Amino acid sequence: MADLCALADGTLPAERRAEVEARVDASPELQELLERQRRAVLAAQSLAAEDVPASLQARVEAQRRALGARRGRSRRLVPRLALAGAAAVAAAVVAAVVLSGGPGAPTVADAARLATQTPTAPAPPPAGKGQTRLAIGVEGVAFPNLARYGWEPLGVRHGRIDGRDATVVFYGKDGRRLGYVIVAGAGLSRPSGAQAKYIRRVEYQTPRLNGRLVVTWRRGGRTCVLLGQATRAELLKLASWPLSQPR
Predict the structure, then answer these.
(1) Of all helices (H) and strands (E), which one includes residue 201?
(2) In 10 A of CB 138, how many CB atoms?
(3) 234 to 44, 100, 137, 144, 158: CA distances (angstroms)
(4) Cα(27)–Cα(155) distance, rounded to whole angstroms?
(5) pLDDT, tens digit (0-9, with 9 covering 90-100), for 91-142
(6) Domains plus CATH for the chain?
């Protein structure tokens, strides 16, 4: 994890860089962690670039007078060091939360794992005759009716990922199975380095998580994840189909 942090902020020694980058390239989970850490570094840098508040300057100056000038440092150096220390602490806190996932911060990999489990509830019916949606959804985002492509709903599973509700609808066709997940709440962090394709101005990413091909995208602000026994082209077609059909 220390190497990952150093890679994100550019302080990783050159002799370690190739090895660490190779490990990251081979692990979607490490790719997501690296992307989070890079965002934390940017946040910390933005904090460090802010002007020192007058109230902070006053407090630091009062402490400097109390300590005296025994260290021989200039009056202007102390506030700068104080701000640098504050920025470093903030960066450490942000990094710890980002790398650990933090409360309410599940990943696409977590959602994908949920889709590999088994149904615990019956299959939902269509929302109505001829409807392209099923009578189930998450926070206003409905699951698609994929019967047109021969994929029939098999069952449903409700779960929680780091405190968020998540629902999976399982589909079956000719002995194959798909898991379609919608996660409640704000969109999850996008996997870094994943192959992306834009369909009707929506970005669909196709990373491999634990050896499985996954399609992930956002609809209605919610993260959707689709994986199963299908090719990349078929998964993309199924994932994007509701966007191109009348509701």
Answers:
(1) none
(2) 21
(3) 41, 34, 22, 15, 25
(4) 31
(5) 444 444 444 444 335 688 888 888 899 999 999 999 887 788 999 999 999 9
(6) 2-100 (no CATH), 108-244 (3.30.200.100)
